[in-house]
Amino acid sequence: MSNDGIKDSNYILCRGESETNRLNRQYNVVKKVLGRTNALPASINPKGLSKVLDVAAGSLVWTLDLARTPDISTRLSPESIDPIHLYACDISSAQFPPGDQTRKLGITTFLHDTTKPFPEEMKGTFDLVNMRLVVLGLSERGWEKAISNIHELLKRGGLLLICEFHEYFVRQGHGVKYEGGVSKEPFESYAHDWMTRTNAVMHRSCIDVNGFIPDLANRLPSMLAKASFQQESYAAFEVPVGAAATRQKSCQVQLSADEANFLAESYLLIHDAVWSDALKKGVLQGLDGPVDTEEGRLAVLDETSKGLTEEGAFTWWVEIVAKRI
Ligand SMILES: C[S@@+](CC[C@H](N)C(=O)[O-])C[C@H]1O[C@@H](n2cnc3c(N)ncnc32)[C@H](O)[C@@H]1O
């Protein structure tokens, strides 16, 4: 932590069993949005991989899916003539699957804060590093350190696969481009609807306070270039949440009402968790200034819930493949 008071890493979601189940279900929705049936984009040839790491792996849902990929599953045994070694790490092991499950698949798990350098013996040895959904965990400086640490881990020509969300809700056709921060003006002067108010509360009470990057999808390309990565691909998806999946006629990403409602519940759970944390820390900013009661917090959450149920919203998700040069 530096003297600006903002930590490099400050994960604020819980890690209980229901969160593990949410991450596992979310993974399948993410795959559907990305339009694939396995863990890798078509541009990454599994045959070219011999050492892979999943960073901030959570429940290891991506690593376990990779282990099931046809060109990978047959190479997991060390006796294979062309073995592949899978590694997964996280700052906490609370959501890791039981050790016998990972051992059986030859997956090595370890604890590591990705904003800290990795062990010397690992540097320059990986063909592929995957990192996804850490937007509500790392500050801007945390991201710079994480990207640089991953760069050190990769072999020359090795790949970084990133999948992340924008943190704001938008209306359809708004585009992936982010149009500046949230105004410091009183809400009533500009926040005329539930979506703007939700974004503003999220920004002031969580993103700003923790130094998170709300428009990661826009910022990652230049951050990766600065760390000597060459961008191989960039795919952005406008994803319907809640009622948007059924109310909008033609969405780029087609989700069932069930899936879009799951995403709405998922976002609400995230808002609930970060706004509870903000209330505890005394930094929750509601519609009429600071909120210091649970009733006030629930009123803000209620408006977001109603908005997602009645109108729905869109969020932008992005997948980037970048090569270490
Ligand atoms: C939303 S979960 C995503 C997990 C997984 N990547 C997935 O796609 O389901 C974010 C994960 O990042 C981990 N995390 C947060 N900060 C971290 C850090 N500084 N270093 C390593 N892992 C971190 C959390 O413990 C959590 O497991």
UniProtKB/TrEMBL annotation:
<dbReference type="InterPro" id="IPR029063">
    <property type="entry name" value="SAM-dependent_MTases_sf"/>
</dbReference>
<protein>
    <recommendedName>
        <fullName>Methyltransferase domain-containing protein</fullName>
    </recommendedName>
</protein>
<dbReference type="Pfam" id="PF01209">
    <property type="entry name" value="Ubie_methyltran"/>
</dbReference>
